[in-house]
Design brief:
Strand order of the largest sheet of chain B: 2-12
Strand content of chain B: 5-15%
Radius of gyration of chain A: 32 Å
Largest sheet of chain A: 22 strands, antiparallel, barrel
Low-confidence stretches of chain A: 1-40
Helix content of chain B: 40-55%
Shape of chain A: globular
Radius of gyration of chain B: 27 Å
Number of strands of chain A: 56
Number of strands of chain B: 17
Shape of chain B: globular
Largest interface: A-B, 79 and 79 residues
Mean pLDDT of chain A: 88
Distance between the termini of chain A: 59 Å
Oligomer: heterodimer
Largest sheet of chain B: 2 strands, antiparallel
Mean pLDDT of chain B: 86
Low-confidence stretches of chain B: 342-356
Number of helices of chain B: 21
Distance between the termini of chain B: 68 Å
Number of helices of chain A: 10
Chain lengths: 1062, 542
């Protein structure tokens, strides 16, 4: 406890916070005084009729109550109820069996007619799980969306379900076709460039470390922590787009709250879920067959410096069947057959819930297993969860959550990798080579052939001899005692311990992969890698909650608390090379070039928060929240926030308000409008995803002469480093029209992020390269619209139609270091002021020179390394000479694509006929560009690897008009350079899910209900995109969006599911 | 109500207090060491020293490539990458992969951190415990600072470790080589007689070669300053104290049968480069670690750096002297300096059977180095000594270094050292000790019995003493090319001599520009014009 600086800095920022706090304080006092003013409440008598919206028949035994619960009634057999409400602008909550809840404004009327809709429809009037527990959707002040029904999902992880459930409210992009990889998520644009831009996950009140930047040793794979939760165990998912200041420095990218299921009644219920499915092989870019490839490869050999005598020795060019190599090199192999298979998926889960007045419990056991679309790959998950609520003493209850999951995966490298990725090699491998060897008598064996003379491994051999696994164990336990001090005051503590351990093993086999040259060391013929990582986290959230209904019109809910997170991540990595045998695969064993590496990161953060919700007469709602955060990652001399106890504290306030206009008396004259709510809010949040230990000077060790240890200075203390700050304004509107047949929700927002993390070069004297500094700025503006219409509402037939749009415009507004580019998979991404993040930056092309004369006339040339020039010739690409100096060089680069979409979202349809439901959900994205890196490698025409069939149209003769340039070994003119040839329109619309479900009308003592359903995913996709699939996300980083690195594409899949309620 | 409010406020405030202890936010690391945790024990100093040595490895490539590619002896080839061409053409861009000034400052800053934590006053058994460590680290720091000033014209001088971003942004005095020399001399002088702390061997690498003998460094610094007597004294001190010799046993010689030169030779000169040779004082050991870059080896092997035509001619134009009757063309030091890529071992080399187009020269020195880049060795010391004493108007003494060898016999031979150069008071001329008995002339180890030669390689007093001095200085410069080619000192040696001559009004920049321009066939005039302005000798750092 030394060196405390009792110094409080006040700047403009803190002043604004003080002002906000003052307003909240004033409001609170006003509420307290309002108690006396409003004491003489006038009672209002109300009678009403509740009936079916279609048949207009009265509904018996419908529950009618006011939203604040001060009055309730039940309808009689004529559907009539009578109620004395305390306010003439009360809001009625009406529910009935088989019907959706409806909330109905009295609007000063004496009698009302309320029509209810069947519960097959979706509904706006529902409870949403917020940070403080379930709240009625109608009283929310911020932009929050919630789903509770994930009954028929085929998603393996929660993030995969977000796209279909939230549509345009979140930009969710499935990472790849590998099961459980999840989705990259962007809420309200791109809120960071160099730090994490993915939302915060809060699971049952516990903030998760989502390890977004943890690299797997398996190429093309992301180990998604959400894998550890079975979607069947999820009760609800809520998407908080603003008003997230409660989560302060962690909330700038939005917050996703996930709540797992708990028992709600003492009645014992058993649910059994069985799903089985089939995943088809993905769409693959067509590559040339033997004949086409042979012509191509002969063509390209002609452009090398090989002599004729050397060429005559190439075995595939010698067609004499008597030669020993003839059999091996004269085939027509479809290499994709060696790699792909149909995947099979199985999922079982059983849960039991119930209990007594002493305790309620929910216990679930689940298994999900599937075999991947690449041979030998699979995914298996076992999960167990126990959620219990125990009443310990009259005033003390205890919530207990225990979760355990085990994941086993077999993987192979994925994406464009010319050594080890079987999916990629199956495209580039020469089709005339046989996958299997031949005996001297010419009989084909079942032994895989080795890597070939063209430098390409055998994908079949790699798949069979690789040994790439991931084993993951995850455990967490939460204890949440709640003490009810008085009816208004609750004190609670939530403690959570979680451990997530994963063990990855990787083996690149000898012979079947081509040796990799390692600079300075020589060739690596095989390789073993192993990585063990562990994340354990201690989470504590202490809260005091004060709820008070002062009278019928004033309702206040205040809580404040403190949150503490201690997160430790450790990873240990080792690799070795050249064991000399495929049977010697243990490290260290006979491996050489051993290399070890690792990470030990301890992060601690504290957040003190306060939240106040005030509701006046269920018409005016106000929420104010503030959090004060400190973290071990923040320096103690930050420019934002204030300094206390030797630490810098960030302050993150927000104010959100809403006005339920539809409850106002004058609204009764506008009968078409049943619900109208305006929301407005402003909040400041932060992004604390900066690197650990940046605030201190530190030393790290390195190896010296293989046997010694040296220690050098590797970081200079940066006490100024801090969170990124995002301030966001939100304006929203929720509408229910035409007797609530049409629901519309509209949000517009504008946000500014400052203190963007940018990499700064050190001055020379530091002797170190670069450090992170908070300097840039960016903005996001956008809108989200969700529309739902009950198009057909007949007795047995219902049709609901939904539409959602998301739109954002991201703009970088300040970069103190100036514009810069980042290399991504052979391409270049520009970060520049005035443009969105992630812009593709390269050359524009204008076709291909058909004739030498045309090329000569253009006078275009390139400058060689030695300063001389080479002119473009016939068959070369015509690059646009933007700089207009006749030389095609870096000065001619321009923006050639934008990976950010203009619109994205979903279109949903749900038809039900009696007990049969058919739903069809389309997802779409419009206006986003894609850098097709995979195609850029398959149409480059620069080496011996097989190419896409487009290369059949390559330029070969003078005068030929084509869009595909000539094939030249090594590409001396740079025809294949990063240009708009590889940028494509990534717009698409696809039938994401088509589902038919049927409730089998069985009901007896044993079975309460059986539901059977069939579903098809990714049924069809309309797109101009040439790659496997327009939806992919290679990395979570903002700058890697829209780069198709050739990961396994999403493919069609079919499922059958059975659900028993016992 | 008020009560509740008070309660809430109290709770909130106390929560801040509860969680605000440093411990709640303090993070330690098992992998990283903070300034508080590290650097203060003798063990830490040891680890930091190895850390510094590992950072020196990053300078090895730069030292050789900057020192030689910019000179006249090493050239680029068709296969050279852009970074090498930039160095060769004096057009080094900020992204050059072999030049990064931060690598030099990384050594300086780590040295500073060690030095500020060393306590030179701790005395155990009458020995100042950490003084040897201090000398070792200061020697590395001084050499590195010299490299900055020589390559980048000025060096930013600081002697307190920079540990914060804020400190890294401060401005530090920028010193050129002469100003820097003053600071470094003051820093090193007190440690002149302190033996380096011996850290023993790390694997097969003997760390005693990791430091720069302080007398050698002081000699170099005085030489750059033009204080020749002090330089000569320092170089001589080093020779005398450690018995540094030009040992006759390391002579390459033709096998002689029947008093005639045969086609076989002994290439003993090569052995003086062997890893534990007594002729080596300082090496930078190259990384053997996977993932750490050491380019010289593969650049050499891939022919991205090749000997210039002039370098080869330098050796070929020398005359090997057996006796009055028998001589041969060529300096045997060529073999060992350059070699052929596919030759199994050096002694089987035979120039008549080698086709240079299919099997071109590689720099053989880099192979003998055995992954250690030699910085200071005996020949360089003697040649620097010669350079210093020559400028003390003792050209014959300087010439004796090249031709005869500084042994007691030669020193008292008036034909070698004429009376007018004798000076009993000049301690730097004292070689009257049996340990110098085996000293031979530097040339004698590649050119036979040239001490007996009166025909081919001779020095006669010129018209004036100044002319004689200039004449011998030329010979020294040429001898440096023959003896220390490709070792990294060429460009700065040319620089030093040229700057001296400009300063003394004895010549202009052409002394450096001409030989280097000659290497740039087809581009001579451009390079010459460029180099006629000494400003262009330095790397423009951004």
């Amino acid at each position: 406890m030394k060196n405390y600086k009792y110094r409080v800095r006040m700047n403009g920022f803190t002043k604004s916070i003080s002002t906000m706090l003052f307003i909240v304080f004033c409001m609170t006092t006003q509420v307290l005084t309002a108690e006396s003013i409003d004491a003489k409440t006038t009672e209002h008598s109300l009678s009403g009729l509740v009936r079916d919206a279609h048949t207009k028949l009265p509904i018996n035994a419908a529950q009618v109550k006011t939203l604040n619960g001060d009055a309730s009634a039940t309808t009689n057999e004529l559907g009539v109820f009578k109620l004395k409400v305390s306010s003439s602008t009360a809001l009625l909550n009406v529910s009935a069996f088989d019907y959706n809840v409806r909330e109905f404004p009295v609007q000063g009327r004496d009698s009302v007619v309320i029509e209810l809709y069947s519960d097959v429809f979706g509904n706006y009037y529902k409870m949403i799980e917020g940070p403080e527990g379930p709240v009625d959707n109608i009283v929310t002040t911020n932009s929050i969306k919630g789903v509770t029904d994930l009954n028929h999902t085929t998603a393996v992880t929660a993030d995969e379900a977000l796209q279909t459930e939230f549509g345009g409210n979140v930009r969710a992009i499935n990472r790849s076709g590998i099961s459980g990889m999840g989705a990259s998520l962007f809420i309200r644009g791109l809120n960071s460039v160099n730090a994490n831009a993915q939302p915060l996950f809060v699971i049952d009140g516990v903030i998760w470390n989502n390890l977004y930047d943890v690299a797997s040793i398996h190429k093309g794979f992301f180990s998604n922590p959400l894998d550890n939760i079975d979607v069947n165990d999820i009760e609800s998912i809520s998407l908080m787009k603003d008003g997230t200041s409660l989560y302060g420095s962690k909330a700038a990218n939005g917050v996703i709250l996930i709540k797992t299921k708990r028992a709600t009644s003492t009645v014992t219920k058993i649910n059994l879920n069985i799903v089985t499915g089939m995943i088809t092989t993905p769409k693959i870019l067509p590559v040339m067959n033997s004949a086409g490839y042979k012509t191509y490869v002969t063509n390209i050999i002609g452009t090398t410096s090989l002599t004729n005598s050397e060429i005559s020795q190439i075995p595939f060019l010698n067609d004499n069947p008597a030669r020993s190599t003839y059999n091996l090199y004269h085939n027509n192999t479809n290499w994709s057959d060696q790699v792909y298979q149909s995947g099979v998926s199985k999922s079982y889960s059983i849960n039991v819930n119930g209990g007594d007045e002493k305790a309620l419990y929910y216990l679930t056991l689940g298994y999900t297993g599937n075999s991947g679309v690449v041979k030998t790959t699979d995914f298996q998950r076992y999960n167990l969860r126990l959620n219990a609520d125990i009443n310990l003493f009259p005033k003390v209850s205890l919530g207990v959550n225990v979760g355990f999951s085990r994941i086993d995966r077999k993987l192979v490298d994925d994406g464009v990798d010319s050594y080890t990725s079987p999916t990629w090699l199956s495209l580039t491998k020469a089709p005339f080579i046989s996958p299997y060897t031949f005996t001297s008598l010419g009989v084909k064996t079942s032994e895989y052939t080795y890597a070939d003379i063209l430098g390409i491994g055998n994908p079949g051999g790699i798949i069979n001899y690789s040994n790439n696994t991931l084993k993951q164990n995850s455990f967490n336990i939460t204890l949440k005692p709640v003490f009810k001090v008085t009816p208004s005051i609750l004190i609670s503590e939530q403690f959570d311990y979680s451990l997530n351990k994963s063990n990855e093993d990787y083996y690149r086999p000898l012979f079947f992969t081509y040796p990799i040259y390692m600079t300075g060391l020589g060739y690596s013929s095989n390789e073993r890698e192993s990585q063990v990582s562990r994340n354990n986290s201690v989470f504590s959230d202490t809260r005091i909650n004060y709820v008070k209904q002062f009278n019928s019109t004033n309702h206040l809910n205040v809580f404040l608390g403190t949150r503490y997170i201690n997160n430790y991540y450790e990873s240990d990595y080792v690799e070795g090379h050249n064991s000399g045998s495929n049977s010697s695969v243990n490290l260290p064993g006979s491996f050489t070039y051993l290399k070890t590496d690792g990470i030990n990161n301890l992060t601690k953060s504290i957040s003190n928060y306060a939240n106040a919700d005030y509701n006046y007469n269920n018409r005016y709602f106000l929420n104010a929240a503030v959090s004060m955060d400190a973290s071990s990652r923040f320096g103690n001399q930050t420019s934002g926030g204030f300094s206390l106890f030797g630490h810098s504290w960030g302050v993150f306030p927000s104010v959100n308000g809403s006005w339920l206009i539809s409850s106002e008396k004058f609204m009764k004259y506008i009968s078409a409008v049943n619900l109208l709510k305006f929301r407005a809010g402003y909040g400041i949040t932060g992004n604390d995803d900066i690197r650990d230990y940046q605030t201190q000077a530190y030393f790290s060790s390195l190896r010296f002469k293989s046997v010694g240890n040296g220690v050098i200075l590797t970081n200079l203390a940066n006490p100024q480093i801090q969170w990124e700050t995002t301030g966001r304004v939100n304006l929203g509107m929720d509408m229910g029209l035409l007797n609530d047949r049409l629901a519309l929700s509209l949000d517009v927002y504008s946000s500014n992020t400052s203190n963007l993390l940018t990499l700064r070069q050190f001055q020379d004297v530091a002797g170190l390269e670069a450090y992170w500094s908070n300097e840039g700025k960016l903005s996001n503006k956008g809108a989200e619209i969700t529309l739902n219409a009950k198009l057909i509402n007949l007795k047995n037939l219902h049709w609901e139609f939904g539409l959602s749009f998301g739109h954002y415009v991201n703009k970088i507004t300040e970069l103190p270091n100036g514009n810069y580019t980042t290399q991504v998979y052979g391409g270049e991404v520009l970060t520049s002021v005035g443009n969105p993040a992630g812009m593709f930056y390269g050359y524009k092309t204008l076709g291909v020179f058909a004739t030498e004369a045309q090329a000569t006339a253009s006078k275009l040339k390139i400058q060689n390394n030695d300063g001389t020039y080479t002119s473009f010739g016939a068959g070369d690409v015509i690059f646009e000479d933007a700089h207009n100096d006749g030389v095609i060089d870096a000065k001619d680069k321009q923006i050639i694509g934008n990976p950010n979409p203009i619109l994205y979202g979903t279109i949903s349809n749900k038809f039900s006929y009696k007990k049969l439901t058919l739903s069809a959900l389309f997802t779409y994205s419009y206006g986003n560009d894609v850098y097709n890196y995979q195609r850029s490698q398959l149409e480059a025409g620069t080496d011996f690897s097989n190419q896409s069939t487009t290369m059949l149209t390559r330029w070969v003769t003078e005068g030929q008009v084509t869009t595909q340039p000539k094939a030249v070994y090594g590409d001396p003119m740079g025809n294949a350079r990063f240009s708009d040839r590889w940028i494509e329109d990534g717009s698409y619309i696809r039938l994401k899910t088509l589902m038919l479900s049927y409730n089998i009308p069985i009901k007896n003592n044993f079975i309460e209900g059986i539901n059977i359903w069939v579903s098809a995913n990714n049924v069809f996709t309309l797109t101009k995109y040439l790659g496997g699939d327009p939806e992919f996300s290679t990395q979570n980083s903002v700058l890697f969006q829209g780069v198709d690195a050739g990961l396994i594409p999403l493919s069609k899949s079919y499922y059958v599911g059975l659900k028993f309620n016992l | 109500m008020k009560k509740i409010c008070n309660l809430l406020i109290c709770l909130f405030i106390s929560s801040i207090f509860l969680v605000s202890c440093n411990d709640m936010l303090g993070v330690d690391s098992k992998r990283l060491l903070t300034e508080q945790e590290y650097g203060h024990t003798p063990n830490d100093v040891l680890f930091s020293t190895f850390g510094v040595l590992s950072q020196m490895q990053k300078l090895a490539d730069s030292y050789v490539l900057l020192g030689e590619l910019r000179g006249d002896l090493l050239n680029v080839s068709e296969t050279s990458d852009l970074s090498l061409r930039e160095i060769n053409d004096f057009a080094i861009s900020p992204t050059n992969s072999y030049v990064n000034i931060k690598n030099y400052y990384a050594v300086i800053n780590n040295c500073n951190y060690i030095l500020q934590n060393l306590d030179s006053t701790v005395v155990v058994k009458g020995e100042k415990l950490q003084l040897g460590q201090m000398a070792a680290i200061k020697s590395i720091r001084a050499w590195t600072y010299m490299q900055i000033a020589l390559n980048f014209k000025t060096a930013k001088y600081y002697d307190k470790a920079i540990l914060t971003v804020e400190d890294s942004k401060k401005s530090y005095p920028e010193l050129d080589i002469t100003a820097l020399a003053d600071v470094l001399i003051a820093d090193l002088e007190p440690l002149k007689n302190v033996p380096f702390q011996d850290l023993g061997a790390v694997g097969s690498y003997n760390t005693t070669y990791s430091y720069f003998p302080i007398s050698f460094l002081l000699g170099d610094l005085y030489l750059w300053k033009g204080e020749y007597e002090k330089a000569a004294i320092e170089y001589h001190d080093f020779m005398f104290k450690f018995g540094i010799l030009i040992y006759g046993g390391y002579s390459s010689a033709w096998v002689v049968t029947n008093n005639t030169i045969t086609k076989d030779a002994y290439y003993n000169w090569l052995n003086s480069f062997a890893p534990f040779s007594s002729e080596i004082s300082t090496t930078i050991t190259c990384p053997t670690e996977y993932g750490q870059k050491f380019a010289l080896d593969s650049l050499n092997y891939q022919h991205e750096i090749i000997p210039s035509t002039q370098a080869i001619k330098n050796w070929e134009n020398q005359t090997y002297y057996l006796n009055e009757a028998s001589s041969a063309q060529g300096d045997l030091r060529q073999i060992g300096s350059v070699g052929w890529r596919y030759s199994a071992n050096s002694s089987s080399l035979n120039s008549t059977t080698t086709d240079l187009t299919t099997n071109p020269y590689i720099i053989y020195k880099y192979r003998i180095y055995n992954q250690n880049v030699v910085i200071y060795r005996n020949s360089l010391l003697y040649l620097r000594y010669a350079e210093a004493v020559n400028r003390l108007n003792k050209p014959a003494l300087a010439f004796a270094v090249l031709k005869y060898g500084l042994n007691p016999t030669n020193m008292s031979n008036p034909k070698v050292i004429p009376a007018k150069e004798k000076d009993a008071a000049a301690t730097y001329m004292n070689f009257n000790d049996t340990k110098f008995t085996n000293n031979v002339g530097i040339r004698m180890r590649g050119l036979g019995a040239c001490d007996k030669d009166t025909t081919f390689y001779t020095f006669h007093a010129q018209k004036s003493l100044r002319d004689s001095v200039l004449y011998v200085e030329d010979l020294i410069q040429k001898e440096l090319a023959l003896e220390t080619a490709f070792e990294g000192n060429r460009f700065t040696d040319l620089m030093r001599i040229t700057l001296r001559r400009i300063k003394n009004g004895e010549g202009d920049a052409s002394y450096l520009a001409d030989p280097i321009a000659a290497k740039h066939v087809g581009n001579e005039s451009y390079i010459r014009t460029l180099l006629m302005n000494p400003e262009n000798w330095y790397i423009k750092n951004k």
